[in-house]
Structures are given as structure tokens and as C-alpha cells.
Amino acid sequence: MTGMTRIPIDVHDVDQLFSTFDPSPFHEFSLNATAAQYIASQAWYAPRSDHFVIELCLRSRPASRKDADKVEAVLRQHFTRLAANEAMNLRKLIRTGLISLAIGLCVLAFCTALSRLVDNSPLPDGWREGIRDGISVFGWVANWRPAQILFYDWWPLRRNRNLYRRLAKAEVVPGKLSRKDAHADEVAPIDTMPIESGPT
Question: In DSSP terms, which residues pair with 191 in a beta bridge?
Fold first, then answer.
């Protein structure tokens, strides 16, 4: 069953949500980095099946439908771009992990063969065991990084990608700020963020 997570935003002016510098030549506006971080942080702990609704207010009053549509279009472009970047980073990470795994297995096979040669060598027992164990440990350590990538490192990128994809489908509606929502500005004072910010 799909639920809904509401994310209230109250600003002095709708232009505060936009960045004045956009590195892409295809978009007139880009979402402000502070606003994007706030929205993503509010959405992070929401149930993964929830649909997001951004409730937009200007000076504690419901925004116009025109402003809501404008913010929705920019938000969709922004998070679609972020989702595409995270998907690309995920593919690169998996490819790096597979290449590292192939190299690590080759190193392990070589070290295993070398340790057997050392084990059959006429070296003194202490030297022979120490060199053999050192070579074996080196072979296994060579597989530590690919194991970390393929077992652990890809999860955060996948979760970010999925979250951005969900936020790209978020609906922006004129908000209805109530007393219950009044604490939102104290937690994340979006209305005090600078109009200009760096690229996202």
C-alpha cells in the first residue's frame, strides 16, 4: 500500500529555492543546494513506498498554483539529474569492483602457487612458515577492496539513486501551514538561506 509523506516548505520568496548559476545549458533554473539538501533529508527516513508531496508556502501563506508548478518542474529536473548521476556512479563502482576482483583473484592464485613453492623449499622451518604465511596473507588482502565494493559500498549509491528517482516524481502543491507545521522553519530555516548558492 502506497502512503504519502508531506514535506512543508515556507520561504519569503520562491526564487530563494533556485540557484542563480546552472552548469547545464538546457535548464533555466536549478534547485538551490540548501533547499535540495533539506528536501532530501526530510525524505530520507520516509517509508520507501511513500509518495512525496511538497507543500509550498510563501511567508506562511499558500503559494500560488503557478509558483508550485514552477518549483515542481525545477525539482523534477534537479532530482532526475541527481538520480542519473548516482546511477552512473553505481555502474562505475560495480565495474571497478569486478575489475578489482579479477585482479585480486589472479594475485591470490599466484600467491597460493608461490606459497606452495616456498613450503617445499629447503629453507629453515621458521623462515619457511613465515614467508609462506606472509605470501598467503598478501594474496587474501589483495581481495579486500573488491570484497568491500561488491558487498558494502554500492548500497548507499543505490539508495540515493532510488530516493532521487522518487523525489523526481514528487508533487508540489500550495501548502496549508498550520500551527502543527510551524516548527518546520525552526528545524530547517529555509527562509533564511541565501538566494545565491554554488552549483549542485
Answer: none
How far is residue 147's CA from residue 140's CA, in Å, rounded to a whole number? Answer: 10
8 Å CB contact between 172 and 72 = yes
Q: How many CA atoms lie within 13 A of 181 on its CB side?
A: 16
Q: Are 163 and 45 in contact (CB under 8 A)?
A: no
Residues in contact with 12: Cβ distance below 8 Å, sequence separation at least 6, in sequence order: 58, 59, 191
Other C-beta atoms closer than 10 Å to the C-beta of 200 total 18
Measure CA of the first residue to CA of the last residue in the chain; give whole Å. Answer: 33
What kind and span of H or E run contains 9?
strand 4-11
- pTM of the complete model: 0.75
pLDDT digits (tens, 9 = 90+) for 136-147: 899 999 999 999
8 A C-beta contact, residue 166 and residue 43: yes
Here the cell at position 151 is 558487498
- The C-alpha cell at 15 is 526564487
